[in-house]
UniProtKB/TrEMBL annotation:
Descriptive protein name: Peptidase A1 domain-containing protein
Domain of life of the organism encoding this protein: Eukaryota
A Pfam family recorded for this sequence: TAXi_C
Record-annotated membrane-spanning stretches: 291-314
Sequence ranges assigned to domain Peptidase A1 in this UniProt record: 1-136
InterPro entries from the UniProt entry: Aspartic_peptidase_A1 (IPR001461), PEPTIDASE_A1 (IPR033121), Peptidase_aspartic_dom_sf (IPR021109), TAXi_C (IPR032799)
Coiled coil: none
Length: 339
C-alpha cells in the first residue's frame, strides 16, 4: 500500500500542511484539477515554491464548498474522514480571493504526513488502550466558548458563609480585585479590507451591546485568519477613571458571554471568545506628576515675568530721578501757576 511506505502514516498537528507520497499526491492533484478547470491557476505567494493556487474564488471561507469539492480519506476498514476545503487549502497572502493547495508531494520520501491543516475544526480522539484514533468534525471556536462558559469560578477562601451572588455565578469576582480594563476577541466572517472602513461603526455597536460609552471601546488589534477578521477589543473605565466597578464589570462580562452585541448583516456572523480582566496599567512618574510639573513651570515663568517687569519699572524711575546732572546744567524754566 502506498501509505505504508517507510514510516507509514504520521498524524502530526505540529506540522502545518500535509505531505503525501508521489502516487497519492498525483492522484489527489489530478482529481482536484479536473473539478476546478474553470478557475485560473496563478503563481503562489512565494516564487521559490511551486504552489498550486487558484484565483477568482472569493474571500468568504464559508462559501468555499460551493467551488471546491470535498475530499475523503478512506481507511482500510472502510471508514471515511471527509475533508472540507478548509482542510486542504490555505489562503493566498498576496492575491485577494485566491487559495492554494495545502497538501504537497513528500519529495523522495514515501512517508505520509498529515499535518494540522487536515484536522482543522476536527476533534481528534486518541484511544491508547485499543490503539485507535477517532475524528469528529466540529466547530472548535464554539467548543472553546462552551468550555469557557461552563468552567466554574475558582473557590474563594472565606471564614464566613458565602453570600448569594447578585448575578450569574460565572461573573462573580474577588472583592479585592481591581478591574483596570476588560479585553476580548471577536471573530467576524468578513475580511479586514472590507471591515476596516467600518470599524468606528462596529465599535459603536459593541458599545451599545455592552451598555458602555463609545469612548470606552478601544481597538487593540485586527488580524486575518482563514478568511475571517480577528479583532481584539478593550473596554476601559468611563471618563478619567482608573478602574471599572464590579457591577459595571459584571454587566460587561455578561454582555460579552451572552452575545448581547447585535450587528447588522454587513458585518456577517461573529463569535466572541477569550475574554479576560486586566489590572489597571501602572502609571509612570510623568503620568502621576505631570500636572504638578506643568503648574510649577507655569508659576516659575509667571514669577519671572513679574520680577522682570518690576525691575524694568524701578530702573526707569531711577534713571528719571536719580541721574547725575553737571554743575553748569541749565534746568528748563517752568511757568508758575497762579494760586
Amino acid at each position: 500500500m502506498v501509505f505504508d511506505g517507510k514510516y507509514g502514516t504520521i498524524l502530526d498537528s505540529g506540522t502545518t500542511y500535509a505531505y503525501l507520497p508521489e502516487p497519492a499526491f498525483k492522484a489527489f492533484k489530478d482529481a482536484i484539477m479536473k473539478e476546478l478547470n474553470s478557475l485560473k491557476l496563478i503563481q503562489g505567494p512565494d516564487r521559490n515554491y511551486n504552489d498550486i493556487c487558484f484565483s477568482g474564488v472569493g474571500s468568504d471561507v464559508s462559501q468555499l464548498s460551493k467551488t471546491f469539492p470535498a475530499v475523503d480519506l478512506v481507511f482500510s476498514n472502510g471508514n471515511r474522514l471527509s475533508l472540507s476545503p478548509e482542510n486542504y487549502l490555505f489562503q493566498h497572502s498576496k492575491a485577494h480571493g485566491a487559495y492554494c493547495l495545502g497538501i504537497f508531494q513528500n519529495e523522495n520520501d514515501q512517508t505520509t504526513l498529515l499535518g494540522g491543516i487536515i484536522v482543522r475544526n476536527t476533534l481528534v480522539m486518541y484511544d491508547r488502550e485499543h490503539l485507535k484514533i477517532g475524528f469528529w468534525k466540529t466547530n472548535c471556536s464554539e467548543i472553546w466558548e462552551i468550555l469557557h462558559l461552563l468552567s466554574p469560578p475558582p473557590a474563594l477562601p472565606s471564614a464566613s458563609p458565602p453570600l448569594a451572588p447578585s448575578g450569574p455565578q460565572f461573573y462573580t469576582m474577588p472583592e479585592d480585585l481591581i478591574v483596570g480594563f476588560i479585553t476580548f476577541e471577536m471573530i467576524l466572517s468578513i475580511m479586514p479590507p472590507k471591515l476596516k472602513p467600518h470599524l468606528t461603526k462596529l465599535a459603536a455597536f459593541v458599545a451599545h451591546g455592552l451598555e458602555v460609552d463609545t469612548s470606552q471601546v478601544h481597538l487593540l488589534n485586527i488580524t486575518s485568519e482563514y478568511g475571517h477578521s480577528v479583532i481584539t477589543w478593550a473596554i476601559y473605565p468611563a471618563g478619567s477613571g482608573d478602574y471599572i466597578s464590579h457591577a459595571a464589570a459584571r454587566n460587561i462580562l455578561a454582555g460579552i458571554a451572552e452575545h448581547r452585541v447585535s450587528l447588522p448583516p454587513m458585518f456577517g456572523n461573529y463569535q466572541v471568545f477569550d475574554w479576560s480582566i486586566e489590572p489597571p496599567a501602572e502609571r509612570t512618574w510623568w503620568q502621576q506628576h505631570h500636572l504638578a510639573v506643568v503648574m510649577t513651570i507655569f508659576i516659575t515663568i509667571l514669577l519671572g515675568l513679574l520680577a522682570s517687569g518690576m525691575w524694568f519699572v524701578w530702573r526707569r524711575r531711577w534713571h528719571s530721578f536719580g541721574s547725575y546732572k553737571p554743575v553748569n546744567y541749565v534746568f528748563p524754566e517752568h511757568e508758575l501757576q497762579p494760586l
